[in-house]
Amino acid sequence: MKHEIPMSKSYRLLYPRPVVLVSCMDTETGKPNLITIAWAVPLSISPPTVGILVAPKRYSHELIEKSREFTINVPTMAILEKVVKCGKVSGRTHDKFAEFGLTPIPGRKVSAPAVKECVAHIECRLANSIKVGDHTLFVGEVLAAYSDEHAFDGDFIDVKNVKQIFQIGGNLFTTTDESCEKVE
After folding, report:
1. pTM
2. The domain containing residue 167 runs over which residues?
3. Whose CA is closest to 52, among 30, 77, 19, 90?
4. Which backbone phi and psi does 96 adopt, to 5 degrees?
């Protein structure tokens, strides 16, 4: 028999979710910021479009609205503690790059930096924003995408070499193992 899931936890049936660090820029001060997000999703192949969901109370929400750009950075389990810490403090009062030992590198197409310690990056220009309940869906047009040599095999993230972070829920995280099953 199947049992009921509280509506407030129904979204967790869609977990584990990949965790990303989204970087954005305060255009007035030139200070970069980071937000930890498990709600990032591809939206379209043509044109390449991705979405991230951010609560309006977050400092990054304000920065993305003003700058109209962001960079999605793919971290690995090697920096899990830093990624979690970035999600626990506000960029309004903390310099997350400096405090957590992360390195901003210039974006190729946007002012929002990439994070050197991450293995892949997707730079986006804000194409649309849609209020969805208690979050805003920021729709980003992909302007650039790049990765470390070992991270992308030409078609996919290389799960044998990249231990991507997946959030199970709350403070529980996992990663992929080395097995893949191809179904024809």
Report:
1. 0.94
2. 7-174
3. 19
4. -65, -35
